[in-house]
Structure formats: structure tokens, C-alpha cells
Amino acid sequence: MRNQRFYLCMTVLLAVLLAAGCARNRQMTQPEKDQMETISAKIAKAEKMDAKECAPVEYAYALAERDEALHEATEPWEDPPKYVAKHFASANKAADDLLNKTTPCWEAKQVKAAPPPPKPVVVPPPPPPMAPAATIMADPKYVYEGKCTKLTWSTQNATSAEIDQGIGSVGLSGTKEVCPKETTKYTITATNPGGPAKAVVEVPVFHRTTLYINFDTNKADIRKADLKELQTAIDFVKRYPDTKIVVVGHTDSTGPDAYNQKLSERRADAVKKYLVDSGHVNADMITAEGRGEAEPIADNKTKEGRAKNRRVEISEHGK
Amino acid sequence: MKQPWLAFCAIVLVVGLSLAGCATANKIQAARSTMDKARDAGAVYKAPFEYKAAEAYLAKAVRQAEKGDPKAAEAFAKESQAYASKALAMSGGGAK
After folding, report:
1. Do A9 and B69 touch (CB under 8 A)?
2. pLDDT at residue B14 above 70?
3. Which residues of chain B have a CB within 8 Å of the CB of A70?
4. What are the contacts of A279-286 at 24+ separation with CB within 8 A?
5. Does any domain span residue B64?
6. Does A185 lie at the interface with B, CB-CB under 8 angstroms?
7. How far is B77 from chain A (nearest CA, A)?
């Protein structure tokens, strides 16, 4: 009797456990798995095409049908294949309905959402390059024959620069020593895509002759012995008729500066007077000035050097 | 009583099954109630997918309950409840 009760209780316990779902789920067959994958793929595809918006009802039914089919296929006690197949067919149809409604809706949305053709991009023309500019100057502004001067130039907004008279391409700014033989115009051409710009400097070349006249000490009178030397001066002014003549007197360093300055001026005046008196040059075309001992051309410590420094320079300065 | 153990086991079985059935029915009822609120809040238009999903899963839950599968019925009822709550929230309903 006791055994009967025990088995009965055990049976009841087992039934409860089964009912609670402790039993092992049914395994889907391979065709069922494939079918389930196909249904899920259709739903996923519809999801990507905004099924929620395009076909909310079909989407909801398809999800529920698929989940029910999955449940029925894995139910422990559900084994008649026909019954499971019916659920799969129902889920598949729901998925097809969903896809059929979603696809055209999605395509229509895509057409609507297609971006308008891009507007032609108008690239504004680049601003015209700023016109270049150039300046050029010479220091000293004029030279005597055989002497040199320094050209200095600068440019703005230029990409290249060139100076004529055989100098050629130069930097955008710089300096160069030139020794023209005749009065020369130097033209710098600064260039950029906006065009060229030019600047010109003229370097006059003047001619000069030097007279070595020996004045008596502290005197400025022309001595007869120097008349031959003065003929050189007359020949010089004859070569440059109607030009400005400048007579510059110099002394050696003997004696005080102020005295030498006055002495050089008197000597220059004496030569000027001689030339004017000779009738070869008008008085208004000739000037005289003294430089004292300031511009020696030889060593004042030697007798020979001092003799060279006591001189008168005559130069022409153009018309 | 000649067989008291048998009677006890039968009572336990009946009570157990009844409790399980009641739990399923409560969950289905709760989902249905939320769905009704969502519908009243305009979920049919404001959250059509969520509302229809709640409706579809509720139908599945009822069907499973009728079939005698409380576990599946509860699972579907739970799903239905989730969608119904979402539909209710999206429709501006819910607790005030």
C-alpha cells in the first residue's frame, strides 16, 4: 500500500515538472531551419526599407507569425510536421505581404529623397594681381669718365626684375656697381602676371681734366710758366662748347684748413678768369669753387705727393 | 479516508495548475488593458506598428492559452504588453 502511494506521488510530481516545461525542446529539421532563415531575412530586408513607416500592420503581423511559427516548431510535444508546416506557410506569407508592401513604398521614398542635381559651382575669378612697381637710383648721381656709381633698386608685387644695358635679370631688390663710359639710362623692368612696370635712372658721365699749376706760395696768380698747362684747359672747354664748366681748386695740407680753403677758391677763380678772358667760355657758363685740402689725390707727406695735390680740376657738366 | 496521500497529491496538482492558469490569464488581461488605453490615446494612428504588434501578440497569447500552453501564452502576453506600453507612451498616454 505504501509503495502504491509512493509511485503515485512520484507520477504526479513528474507530471507537474513536465507541465512546467522542464522537458527538452523539439529540434527543428534542416528544411525548417532554412525556411525560418528565409522568413527572417525577408523581415530584416523590410526593416531596412523602413517597414515600420511603410507597412506597420504587415510588419507587426509578420513578426508575430514568425515568433509563433518558431514556438510551434520547437514545442516539445508538437511533432506532427503538417501542423508545423502550416505555421511556417502562414509566417512566410506574412513576410511576403510585408515585403510586397514595403518595397514600392521605399522606392517611392527614395525618388522623393533623391538630392536635387548639384548646382554648378561658380568659382569666382581670382582677383587681378596687383600691378608691380619699381624704383631705381644711382649714388653718386653722376660720374666722371672712368669712375663708377652704385645702382640701387627695389620692386613691389613683382615676380621678376631685369635691368637693361647688358645687366640682365636681377633680384627683386639689390645694388650693383656700374661704370658707364657715356651718359647712360638704366631701365629696370619689374614684372608680374599683372604686367610690367618700369623705372629709369640716368647716370650722366662728365669729362674732367686736371691742371697741375704751381702757384707761388700763398699766391693765386697764374705764372707764365703755367700758360702751357692752361692751354690744356682751353682745349678742354673747346671740346665741350655751350656746356657748364666747373673749376675746382685744391691745395696740399700745408697750413691751416681755413687758409687752404680760401687759397683753393682763389686759385679756382684765377683759372676761371683766365678761361673767360680767353673768350672760349661765357662767364655765366663757368663756376669756380675750392675744396681746400679735403680731397687729396696723393700723399701729403712727400714733396711729390703735395705737388700732385696742388691742382685745379676742370670738368664739364653738360648743357 | 482510506487513501489520504492520493487525495493530497490530487489537491496539490489541481491547485498548482489553477495558479499557473491564473497567472497566464492575469498577464493576458494586463496586456489587453494596456492596449485598450493605448487605443484610447490614439495609438492606432500615432503608433500604428506598436499597436498592431501588441494586438497580434495578444492574439497569439490567447491562442496558446486556449491550446493549453501557459508558458507560450505568457511569453506572447509579455511581448504584447511591451508593445502596448510603447504604443501608449508614443501616443502621449500612460499614468497621469
Report:
1. no
2. no
3. none
4. A280/A234, A280/A237, A280/A238, A281/A237, A281/A245, A285/A242, A285/A243, A285/A244, A285/A245, A286/A244, A286/A245, A286/A246, A286/A247
5. yes
6. no
7. 11
Segment A228-285, tens digit of pLDDT: 888 888 888 888 888 889 999 998 898 899 999 998 998 899 889 988 998 888 889 8
Query: What is the spatial distance between Cα A52 and Cα A71, in angstroms, rounded to a whole number?
Result: 24
Looking at beta carbons, which residues of chain A come within 8 Å of B17?
19
Chain B residues closer than 8 Å to A52 by CB: 49
Q: Is B61 within the bounds of a domain?
A: yes
Domain assignment of residue B4, yes or no: no
Q: Do A8 and B5 touch (CB under 8 A)?
A: yes
- Split at pLDDT 50, 70, 90, the class of A151 is very high
Domain housing B63 = 34-39+47-96
Which of A155, A244, A248, A259 shows the shortest CA–CA distance to A204? A244
Q: Is A18 on the interface with B (CB under 8 A)?
A: no
Rounded Cα distance, A274 and A288, in Å? 12
The number of folded domains in chain B is: 1
Binary contact (B49, A60; C-beta < 8 A): yes
Residue A290 has pLDDT above 90, yes or no: yes
CB proximity A14 to B under 8 Å: no
The C-alpha cell that represents A79 in the structure block: 511533432
Residue type at B48? P
ipTM of the complex, rounded to two decimals: 0.79
Q: Which three cell numbers stand for residue A112?
A: 522623393
- B65 within domain boundaries: yes
User: Whole-prediction pTM value?
Assistant: 0.45
